[in-house]
Amino acid sequence: MGKDYYSVLQITRSAKDAEIKQAYRKIALNFHPVKNPGDRHAADRFRESSEAYDVLSNPQRKAIYDQFGEEGLKNGVPLDKTNWSDPYTFCGDPHKIFHEFFGGDNPFADFYKHAELDKSENFGGLAGRGRKKQDPPIERDLMLSLEEVFHGCIKKMKISRRVMNDDGHTSSFKEKILTITVKRGWKPGTRVTFEQEGDQGPNSIPADIVFIVRDKPHPIFRREASNLVYVQKIPLASALTGTTIHVPTLDGRILDIPITDIVKPGFTRSIPGEGMPLVEDTNTKGDLIIEFDIEFPKYLNSDSKDFIKKALIPNAYKKEDKPKKQNVQMKSSDFED
């Protein structure tokens, strides 16, 4: 069961924006690590309340969460026939949410006048004023089909981020479209970075947003480096006697491949230049590797089994033995009249 952000902030689902802010303020101040040094429970409550506020204070995230729960929020949901919402990932830094909520001022200054906190940049203290620290990168998966990587394409990624208003103290959420030009042959793990496109804060540098290329599962092929692997089912009879198979390609062609060798378990056939384009030279491609899945018959009658034995096991049936000569001992009396 998913997280209940409303329970975390101890509010009802009908709570308005002001109530959400008030609830977060109370919990964040009560459970802040400065007031609860070494208290693991307080640290967990502080972090949970930060994530809950980050979701419920954003109208779009809140709407998705209210309808689809945590799973829909973090996995994305269909907005229309072609577009999905961006999966939500908490920034992982509750101090960042706290810092932005209080506008960079230290709410504990009146209580900890002699503490080192006043010198910390985490809350805009004396030593921290004017200094900005960049938030850690926000990483998101960029799911691409093999066709998109094979041909190259343009991907439009919609993000929702917090931006500072003109007064320099308050913020609001705005949507933005990031354009990614997918180059042919991009490999899984390729990183595309958009600098400082994360949430803005009064005393922090926005995080970079990093999209990481991942392969979508393909119904026919799988990618291994620059090669494509295709699995061909083949009946046992064809595996033994030969056949011609018809193999599709990512660009819509059909290759007719004659198989004249005996196909044994582990046998493969490699077709050069029919794999994925190389990033460094898109005119050069990897190989198409054909793996074989031999289909054995489910049943054989006795005549079929005898026929196969005669064909595959020459010595299975020996020639019929000739009648043996009898060794008869004759007596001399046998020849007398």
UniProtKB/TrEMBL annotation:
GO terms for cellular component: cytosol. Keywords: Chaperone. PROSITE patterns: DNAJ_2 (PS50076). Gene3D superfamilies: DnaJ domain, Urease metallochaperone UreE, N-terminal domain. It holds the Pfam family DnaJ_C. The keyword Disulfide bond does not apply. GO terms for molecular function: protein-folding chaperone binding; unfolded protein binding. SMART domains: DnaJ. CDD domains: DnaJ, DnaJ_C. Residues 4-69 form the J domain. GO terms for biological process: protein folding. InterPro entries: DnaJ_C, DnaJ_domain, DnaJ_subfamily_B, HSP40/DnaJ_pept-bd, J_dom_sf. This is DnaJ-like protein. The lineage of its organism: Eukaryota, Metazoa, Spiralia, Gnathifera, Rotifera.
